[in-house]
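Student: Hello, beginner here. Can you help me understand the protein record under this note? Any guidance would be welcome.
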Amino acid sequence: MKAVMIVYNHGITEEVDEALEKLNIRGFTRFLDVHGQGSKKGDPHQGSHIWPSKNAVVLTVVEDNLVDSLLKEVEQINKEAEEQGIHAFVWNIEKMF
């Protein structure tokens, strides 16, 4: 099992939801109103008057065989909406119940 955390501008929530649905990933947790800034480029997303954009985060745990497909979906979203910002991070899940 792998955990996949997808951090993205809240403006592309629909695209992220469509990717999860396409891969039949039902279980996830969404964190709203997340503030941050990309490490290489892009504007800060702080939900403030000066930097009004906000991020969201989806955290899901999936079977190993779904990871590459999910990352390809994230990559495609990024190609279509690069200025919005989206990143995915993957790590191992040792145990869960």
Notes: The longest strand covers residues 2-9. The two ends are 12 Å apart (CA to CA). Helices lie at 13-22, 64-80. The chain has one domain: 2-38+45-92.
